[in-house]
């Protein structure tokens, strides 16, 4: 019977997790005033376990575990969150506990702000913008410029100042259990900072009020938006654990169409770019989204960085970029990809390896609906690699790269220049992952 052995392996993992927590408590005992009674370390002070992905490299990832009481905050509003984050250049360890859902689109008095509030005073209007840059009159050869584009940029800046939250180094930002903790409409950013932990948060409805038309993007042009739910730019030692990401309630299928193209108000869920490095993304749920995760923002993003581990995440109802991998050494293990169309989000592909990315995809589980094409689970530009084994499609061992390469002229390379060693929790079979991850991922699971 599979069930008893599954339970045994779960128990074993929990025992290991507790051991790691006790070790961490011992190491930090001198500063963990609030835990002087030697309880297992609480959620807020937990640090990344040893060897748990690339973020465990070197000194590891401890976030704000050493915060003193003056730098330990509980916040429930946007204004309180901004105050707790403090200055982006202040490296004092801090713990920020988010209680309930913080709406980024609220002013300091708690009043709801709308796109109209951000546009006010800038001269921007969508109808004037659409008239100014209609391909029928403006053409398709150059980016919008002039009065309405300036006004759009100004309005976008007003929104950015409201919804962008800049996380300083040595910070743990974590949802308080049982409070539906998260951020809606916001963009959490770790820019050129080290040692950040983001846990137990539900991110939803991050929307750009002012998408920009780019007639040169693709054959037909595209509407592009600015904000991810979480953005890592030049960030190092980041642990994103047990978070949830969704566009809901603003689903893409409800988007307007202008110039024949979807008016896309979302960018990424969790983008890891501009020389970010040593990142572990673990037990998150990515649902109802298009451009889910970039690793590297361009084919020349950086060399020797962009080292990322993605494990035990659920990707369901995501169109593409799960992730789009560039350049770095990227370990993708024990994830579940459900490629059923959900809420109108029809998957194009799961993993893209391009710009010489060195991906190891190991022991992942793909759920592919009847009629779904295994050859479309991967994508690439002919220079990226995907090594690794033990991947299952509907429970059957499948060499996804071989299936892809048989159907495509730009082949995915099958060898990589590294061997993963920071692999705590790596399960040798993907078989039980759909059941296991159904109840152990996303915000709201941690106690
Ligand atoms: Ca949308
Ligand atoms: Ca982005």
Write a concise keyword list for the protein shown above.
single chain; 447 residues; alpha/beta; Pectate Lyase C-like; ten-stranded parallel β-sheet; ten-stranded mixed β-sheet; 8 helices; 32 strands; globular; disordered N terminus; binds calcium ion
Describe the overall structure:
The structure is a single chain. With 447 residues, this protein is of the alpha/beta class. The protein has one domain: Single-stranded right-handed beta-helix, Pectin lyase-like (Pectate Lyase C-like). The chain has eight helices and 32 strands. The strands form six sheets. Strands 1-2-5-8-13-18-21-24-27-30 form a ten-stranded parallel β-sheet, covered by helices on one side. Strand 10 (212-214) and strand 11 (222-224) form a beta hairpin. The structure holds calcium ion (CA) (2 copies). Residues 228, 231, 267-268, 271 line the site of one calcium ion.
């Amino acid at each position: 019977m599979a069930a008893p052995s599954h339970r045994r392996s779960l128990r074993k993992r929990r025992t290991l997790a507790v051991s790691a927590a006790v070790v961490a408590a011992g190491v930090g005992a001198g500063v963990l005033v609030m835990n002087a009674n030697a309880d297992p370390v609480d959620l807020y002070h937990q640090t990344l376990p040893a060897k748990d992905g690339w973020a465990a490299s070197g000194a590891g990832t401890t976030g704000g575990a050493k915060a003193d009481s003056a730098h330990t905050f509980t916040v429930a509003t946007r204004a309180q969150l901004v105050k707790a984050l403090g200055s982006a250049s202040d490296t004092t360890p801090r713990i920020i506990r988010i209680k309930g859902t913080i709406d980024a689109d609220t002013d300091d008095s708690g009043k709801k702000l709308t796109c109209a509030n951000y546009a006010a005073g800038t001269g921007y209007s969508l109808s004037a913008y659409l008239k100014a840059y209609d391909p029928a009159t403006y053409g398709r050869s150059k980016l919008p410029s002039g009065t309405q584009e300036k006004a759009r940029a100004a309005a976008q800046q007003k929104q950015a100042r409201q919804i962008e939250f800049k996380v300083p180094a040595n910070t743990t930002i974590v949802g308080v259990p049982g409070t539906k903790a998260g951020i809606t409409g916001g963009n959490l950013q770790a820019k050129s900072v080290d040692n950040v932990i983001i846990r137990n948060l539900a991110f939803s409805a991050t929307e750009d009020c002012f998408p920009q038309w780019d007639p040169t993007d693709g054959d037909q042009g595209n509407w592009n938006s600015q904000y991810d739910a979480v953005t890592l730019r030049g960030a190092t030692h980041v642990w994103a654990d047990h978070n949830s990401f969704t566009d809901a309630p603003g689903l893409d299928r409800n988007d307007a169409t202008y110039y024949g193209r979807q008016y896309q108000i979302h960018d990424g869920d969790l983008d890891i770019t501009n020389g970010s490095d040593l990142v572990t993304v673990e037990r998150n749920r990515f649902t109802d989204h298009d451009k889910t995760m970039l690793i590297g923002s361009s084919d020349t993003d950086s060399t020797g960085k962009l080292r990322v581990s993605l494990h035990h995440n659920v990707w369901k109802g995501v169109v593409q970029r799960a992730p789009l991998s560039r350049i770095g050494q990227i370990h993708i293990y024990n994830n579940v990809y459900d490629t059923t169309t959900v809420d109108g989000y029809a998957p194009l592909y799961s993993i893209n390896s391009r710009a010489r990315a060195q991906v190891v995809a190991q022991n992942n589980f793909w759920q592919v609906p009847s009629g779904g094409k295994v050859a479309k689970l991967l994508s690439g530009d002919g220079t990226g690699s995907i090594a690794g084994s033990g991947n299952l499609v509907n429970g059957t061992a499948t060499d996804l790269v071989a299936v892809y390469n048989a159907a495509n002229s730009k082949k995915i390379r099958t060898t990589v220049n590294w061997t993963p060693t920071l692999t705590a929790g790596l399960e040798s079979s993907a078989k039980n992952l759909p059941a296991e991850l159904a109840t152990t991922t996303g915000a709201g699971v941690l106690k």
